[in-house]
Amino acid sequence: MNEIYTPDEVAKLFKISKHTVYELIKRGDLRAFKVGNKMRIEQNEVNRYKQLMETAPALKPSADHSIRLAGSHDFLIEHLVKYAARHTQGLSIQPTYVGSLEGLMMLYRNSCDAAAIHLLDPSSKEYNIPFIKQLFVHEPLTVMRFASREQGFIVANGNPKNIKCFHDLTREDVIFVNRQKGSGTRYVIDYYLAEEGIDPQEINGYLNEEWTHSATASLVNGGKADVAFGIQSATENLQVDFIPVMKEQFDLVFRWTEQNHSSLKRLIDLLTDTAYKDSMQNKTGYDVSEFGTIIYEHK
């Protein structure tokens, strides 16, 4: 009998976090299927992956610089990973898209070298810095402004449901698709719902969670949802419309250690190189006028 597992069960089998399981699924290393909005993995696939790991050759020690980057999914981060692979000798970036909050917590636990975050503090209305100051007291940190991003409603072409505001999400004829808890976008969604006195239980689809902007936009594009809340760049090459709501700050947080100092220095040299800056221009939904600015530092 081919048993069916949840991501949590697979995580326990391999003694890894469930976020790692979702990352394996996203990369295509572990094949999964959906039942409603839930991921499931067949036992045959679990056995295949286990056998693959057992027979994989051990990695030899290398002088290459590898940087573990965790946090929010973003198309500029994808661009950075590809750019580093093409234009730098021995510098590789290993991304894990687990959401802004979990990315920052991984940095706090020293499980990564850098975090990509966009976390709105409801009290101060400030992005990122309040969360960083709460978590990191003694650790050497550098926070670099990466970009400002347009966030808004992603709707079907022509906006047939005439969605204009968050109150429209409570209508019976509207199906919403949400982002996962801990993502920066989920923070923004919940902030607006609280500000406008909207009970999440009134929203059809509030519990339907996806892990990337691409996934939510694709569901709207495929007619499986009427609206998502996400970044404008996710709508490129899709038959959907975008209704801007706000601009948010997307930043990179570097935690310095003796082990990663030279690697992070190489990454920052890459980021501040004129050729890389030029490669970021004219990206849909982004303002990179403040890119490279150091907005906070603790030594």
Topology summary:
Layout: E1 4-5, H1 7-14, H2 18-27, E2 33-35, E3 38-42, H3 43-55, E4 65-71, H4 75-87, E5 91-97, H5 100-108, E6 114-117, H6 129-135, E7 141-156, E8 176-179, H7 184-195, E9 209-210, H8 213-221, E10 227-231, E11 240-255, H9 261-271, H10 274-279, E12 286-287, E13 294-298
Parallel strand pairs: 4-5, 4-6, 8-9, 8-10
Antiparallel strand pairs: 1-3, 2-3, 6-11, 7-10, 7-11, 7-12, 7-13
Write up what this structure looks like.
With 299 residues, this protein is of the alpha/beta class. It has 3 domains: 4-55; 65-146 and 252-298, Periplasmic binding protein-like II (D-Maltodextrin-Binding Protein, domain 2), CATH 3.40.190.10; 150-247, D-Maltodextrin-Binding Protein, domain 2 (3-Layer(aba) Sandwich), CATH 3.40.190.10. It has 10 helices and 13 strands. It has helices spanning 7-14, 18-27, 43-55, 75-87, 100-108, 129-135, 184-195, 213-221, 261-271, 274-279; strands at residues 4-5, 33-35, 38-42, 65-71, 91-97, 114-117, 141-156, 176-179, 209-210, 227-231, 240-255, 286-287, 294-298. The strands form 2 sheets. Strands 4, 5, 6, 7, 8, 9, 10, 11, 12 and 13 form a 10-stranded mixed beta sheet that branches. A 3-stranded antiparallel beta sheet has the order 1-3-2. Helix 1 packs across helix 2. The longest helix is centred in the N-terminal third of the chain and has 13 residues, at 43-55. The protein starts with a strand and ends with a strand.
State the gist of this model.
This protein is of the alpha/beta class. The chain contains ten helices and 13 strands. The strands form two sheets. Strands 4, 5, 6, 7, 8, 9, 10, 11, 12 and 13 form a ten-stranded mixed beta sheet that branches. Strands 1-3-2 form a three-stranded antiparallel beta sheet.
